[in-house]
């Protein structure tokens, strides 16, 4: 996965990088900081640049603090987080291009604007305090933090709404999906991306889509049943019946 | 027309693989595309014998052999891809029954033909499951069969027990299963598990003749005669565990109800009315066909549009009809077992149409095209992830319900990608006749047929026993041959086999 992110960031020779090698990892960190992140203080940057030094780890710790990286289990995960951060910065640079096609924007252009007062808007989402608390919350709920705390917050919200609402806690049976598990790995995807990892990712997206569709259909059915309670009046009259010759 | 002997005719046919034959251009005059048909060894013999008989000198009259009919359809204006014959194919009016053909909507010359839909518009099969098992039903089998027979009027000229006036009929024609839902005859999930969600949106009752409406009104909620039936079936074999599981079929022995019916006299009248109009339109627009029975009109013409709108109304009629019978079957079971239909889990697994023309998107020669797909005696079989199939079947592909003949088994198949690309997502619809109705009446004694059913342990209730030999298994092809051919050719996949324990017939 990390290699994919590296090649997405156009890291030179990304396919042949050996991520278990300390030296390589150090040079990746420097490359990321210089070319993509630009978030280190000058002193830290100088420390990081000296990849051979035994103090490198100290500078790396300082660097992580400066970027607001949450405490993680292994160096692999830290690198992964850094890569995520870089990708995030890279995509935010081109945000306008991507957002042109976002559902919200398409909707906004066609609907009149209503500005509602929301006290949450006054929060500083970029502050370190906010970020720390979100990461703490994520850790408690066993969610992997994302560099953008707002995205992490969305994940937190999803878990809280679907699993921790009062009714869910009292009657967990109602909410935990039942039924026979379906071996989706064997299911036909319908197309081939010539890459097992991408295929798996596409399959997962398909499952999520099917789940969304199921929820929509269930809501439609509920609506129909609601209307039926007003309109339904089935009648039969056996006197009308006639069996043919 | 050139007259050729049998061997000369064979030169136009080529076996591409053990299950598929190609009909080359020139077999019939003016073919725009090639034909293709799917058969195994047994069915191949039936198919070629039919052609051989027709080649004998002095053979005139009656329907043309199936192969010839496929080729004549390939000569219709605007046809794309191939004219496809499915394994259960047999001669019919104009189009063979078991023939599918697609026409490009954006080609101004393209036609729609009532012969490509058939007289029983939206004839189809619906399968309900229950949570009962064979041992629960066997002791009360006779009572249950009688109860179904009492609830669902059968036979020629039968009348339904759901009171309807002409206003109700107008609304039902426009709304299809939404009408049944509004009136409370069916469940919301029934609509979810029905082809087209049980409603053709382009239906226009004002395009339907008074005569058709008069014929149709008393017949709603009746089974009809001919090959139509309602059967209590049990799961005999499960081929695809996961697909069956998605359909709510867990084990061998589970009890299901299959309803095979159509639009009764209503659809017949709509088709007859349209044929008259189309003959005029053909003269006006100079449309040439190889066979007078292939009457058709340009899709864009008034006649073409009127037919599509009235056909859609007839399709809606058929869905309301099957829905009414679903309601009545649930009542019959509920009374017998003193349980609510909900508690018996009597959900609709699926509802397919095998006589219909629909607008669909398909890939032809690498390009996406909007086509008018005619399926006559052919069932839609869309692959997994197709947007038009219910969410519950997104992973398995569309369930395809194949009704067998009286006393033989039925099958549930699922759609495949290969079917989508080879046959415009179409597969077989049933056993398909081997003997004509008249021939079966001559060859088989009806008491014999009824006795055989009894020997097999099948309870049977018939309105007109003297017509039962027309529907005897001997008059049909072997449904297992038909289904195995579709499976082996890859155009659909076997999921479940069902066998009947009680039959209600017209």
Automatic annotation (TrEMBL), chain A:
Pfam families on file: RLL
InterPro entries xref list: RTRAF (IPR019265)
Full protein name: RNA transcription, translation and transport factor protein
Automatic annotation (TrEMBL), chain B:
GO cellular component, one term: nucleus
Organism lineage: Eukaryota, Metazoa, Ecdysozoa, Arthropoda, Hexapoda
Pfam families registered for this protein in UniProt: RtcB
Similarity-based family: Belongs to the RtcB family.
Enzyme Commission number(s): 6.5.1.8
Molecular-function GO term, any one: RNA ligase (ATP) activity
Positions bound to Mn(2+) 2: 123, 260, 354
Reaction(s) this enzyme catalyzes, per UniProt: a 3'-end 3'-phospho-ribonucleotide-RNA + a 5'-end dephospho-ribonucleoside-RNA + GTP = a ribonucleotidyl-ribonucleotide-RNA + GMP + diphosphate; a 3'-end 2',3'-cyclophospho-ribonucleotide-RNA + a 5'-end dephospho-ribonucleoside-RNA + GTP + H2O = a ribonucleotidyl-ribonucleotide-RNA + GMP + diphosphate + H(+)
Keyword Ion transport: no
GO biological process, one term: tRNA splicing, via endonucleolytic cleavage and ligation
Physiological role: Catalytic subunit of the tRNA-splicing ligase complex that acts by directly joining spliced tRNA halves to mature-sized tRNAs by incorporating the precursor-derived splice junction phosphate into the mature tRNA as a canonical 3',5'-phosphodiester. May act as an RNA ligase with broad substrate specificity, and may function toward other RNAs.
Cofactor: Mn(2+)
Assembly and interaction partners: Catalytic component of the tRNA-splicing ligase complex.
Protein name: RNA-splicing ligase RtcB homolog
Keywords: GTP-binding, Ligase, Manganese, Metal-binding, Nucleotide-binding, tRNA processing
């Amino acid at each position: 996965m990390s290699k994919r992110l590296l090649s997405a960031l156009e890291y030179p020779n990304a396919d042949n990088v050996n991520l278990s090698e300390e030296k390589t990892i150090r040079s990746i960190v420097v490359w990321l900081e210089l070319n993509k992140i630009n978030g280190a203080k000058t002193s830290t940057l100088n420390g990081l640049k000296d990849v051979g030094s035994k103090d490198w780890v100290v500078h790396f710790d300082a660097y992580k603090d400066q970027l607001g990286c949450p405490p993680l289990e292994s160096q692999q995960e830290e690198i992964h987080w850094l890569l995520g951060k870089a990708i995030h910065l890279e995509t935010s640079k081109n945000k306008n291009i991507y957002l042109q096609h976002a559902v919200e924007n398409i909707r906004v252009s066609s609907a009149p604007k209503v500005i509602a007062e929301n006290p949450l808007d006054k929060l500083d989402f970029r502050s370190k305090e906010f970020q720390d608390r979100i990461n703490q919350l994520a850790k408690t709920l066993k969610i992997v933090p994302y560099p953008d705390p707002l995205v992490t917050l969305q994940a937190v919200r999803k878990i809280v709404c679907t699993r921790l609402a009062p009714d869910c806690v009292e009657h967990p049976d109602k909410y935990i999906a039942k039924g026979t598990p379906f071996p989706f790995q064997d299911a036909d995807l319908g197309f081939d991306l010539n890459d097992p990892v991408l295929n798996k990712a596409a399959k997962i997206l398909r499952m999520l889509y099917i789940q969304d569709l199921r929820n929509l259909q269930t809501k439609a059915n509920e609506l129909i049943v609601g209307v039926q309670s007003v309109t339904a009046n089935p009648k039969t009259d056996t006197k009308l019946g006639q069996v043919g010759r | 027309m050139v007259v050729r002997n049998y061997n000369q005719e064979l030169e136009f046919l080529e076996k591409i693989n053990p299950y598929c034959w190609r009909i080359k251009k020139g077999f019939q005059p003016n073919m725009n595309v090639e034909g293709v048909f799917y058969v195994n060894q047994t069915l191949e013999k039936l198919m070629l014998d039919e052609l051989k008989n027709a080649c004998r000198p002095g053979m005139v009259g009656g329907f043309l052999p199936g192969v010839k009919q496929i080729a004549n359809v390939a000569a219709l204006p605007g046809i794309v891809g191939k004219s496809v014959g499915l394994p259960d194919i047999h001669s019919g009016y104009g189009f063979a029954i078991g023939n599918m053909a697609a026409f490009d909507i954006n080609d101004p010359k393209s036609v729609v033909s009532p012969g490509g839909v058939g007289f029983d518009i939206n004839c189809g099969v619906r399968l309900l499951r229950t949570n009962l098992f064979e041992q629960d039903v066997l002791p009360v089998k006779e009572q249950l069969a009688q109860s179904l027979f009492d609830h669902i009027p059968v036979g020629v000229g039968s009348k339904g027990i759901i009171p309807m006036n002409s206003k109700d009929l107008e609304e039902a024609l426009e709304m299809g299963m939404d009408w049944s839902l509004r009136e409370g005859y069916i469940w919301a999930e029934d609509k979810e598990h029905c082809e087209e969600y049980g409603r053709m949106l382009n239906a226009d009752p004002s395009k339907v003749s008074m005569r058709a409406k008069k014929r149709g009104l008393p017949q709603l909620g009746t089974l009809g005669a001919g090959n139509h039936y309602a059967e209590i079936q049990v799961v005999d074999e499960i081929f695809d565990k996961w697909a069956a599981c998605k359909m709510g079929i867990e084990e061998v022995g589970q009890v299901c109800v299959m309803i095979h019916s159509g639009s009764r006299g209503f659809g017949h009248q709509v088709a007859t009315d349209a044929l008259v109009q189309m003959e005029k339109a053909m003269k006006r627009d100079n449309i040439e066909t190889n066979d007078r029975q292939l009457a058709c009109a340009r899709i864009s013409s008034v006649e073409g549009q009127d037919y599509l709108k009235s056909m859609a109304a007839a399709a809606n009629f058929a869905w309301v009809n099957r829905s009414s019978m679903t309601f009545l079957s649930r009542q019959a079971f509920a009374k017998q077992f003193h349980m609510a239909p909900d508690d018996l889990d009597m959900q609709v697994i699926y509802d397919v149409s095998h006589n219909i023309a629909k607008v669909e998107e398909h890939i032809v020669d690498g390009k996406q095209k909007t086509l008018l797909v005619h399926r006559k005696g052919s069932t839609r079989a869309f692959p997994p992830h197709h947007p038009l199939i219910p969410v519950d079947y997104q992973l398995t592909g569309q369930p395809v319900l194949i009704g067998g003949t009286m006393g033989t088994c039925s099958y549930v198949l699922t759609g495949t990608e290969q079917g989508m690309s080879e046959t415009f997502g179409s597969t077989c619809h049933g056993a398909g006749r081997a003997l004509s109705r008249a021939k079966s009446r001559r060859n088989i004694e009806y008491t014999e047929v009824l006795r055989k059913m009894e020997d097999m342990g099948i309870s049977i209730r018939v309105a007109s026993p003297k017509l039962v030999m027309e529907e005897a298994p001997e008059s049909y092809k072997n449904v297992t041959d038909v289904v195995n051919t579709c499976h082996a050719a890859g155009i659909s996949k076997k999921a479940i086999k069902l066998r009947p324990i009680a039959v209600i017939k017209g």
